[in-house]
Amino acid sequence: MMSNTKGKDAAEGSSSRSPLPAATAPVPQPLSRYESQKRRDWNTFGQYLRNQRPPVALPQCNGGHVLDFLRYLDQFGKTKVHMQGCVFFGQPEPPGPCSCPLRQAWGSLDALIGRLRAAYEENGGPPEANPFASGAIRVYLREVRDSQAKARGIPYTKKKKKRNPIINKPNHDHHDQHSSSFTMQ
């Protein structure tokens, strides 16, 4: 019976052998949160295209398919967007419930398109044919942003970038003592 165990150890590898040096077996670094999300989004979009009737191959994908995908995602949204006829339309904090639909938030869609745009090119797609960079997508995102801002009663205003930093200027205004002095470029 002992010879049977010995033969098994030799065939499967024995713990008495010295392990391989760590340098020969590189350990892959875990993906960042952004890279993981980008991969998950890319796989989801690929699955969406495969589920179309007839299925759509990635090289045949265009801005229309991307717009359909964004509209499809609305059913999984968690942002209440009041319709024009709703009594709460234009109120930032409505006092009660309503039957308006839940949608994907504009910021989520904007970030999703950014990740998919990058993933498309990382997966071999030519930048000039990137369906996520089409003008129709930018127009759609702008319309979603504006309609959601109106529905909440809060107009969207783009944040302005500071142009000239104030260096070593004494601050005598009590209200600005806690503000940041770095600039975005």
TrEMBL record:
Location in or out of the cell: Nucleus
Highest taxon of the lineage: Eukaryota
Basic and acidic residues composition-biased segments: 1-11
Record's keyword annotation contains DNA-binding: yes
One cellular component (GO) term of this entry: nucleus
GO BP annotations, alphabetical order: mRNA transcription; response to light stimulus
GO molecular function: DNA binding
Positions of region (Disordered): 1-36, 151-185
Keywords: Developmental protein, DNA-binding, Nucleus, Transcription, Transcription regulation
Record-linked InterPro entries: ALOG (IPR040222), ALOG_dom (IPR006936)
ALOG domain sequence ranges: 33-160
Pfam family, one: ALOG_dom
PROSITE patterns referenced in this protein's UniProt entry, alphabetically: ALOG (PS51697)
Family the UniProt entry places it in: Belongs to the plant homeotic and developmental regulators ALOG protein family.
Name of the featured protein: ALOG domain-containing protein
Organism of derivation: Ficus carica (Common fig)
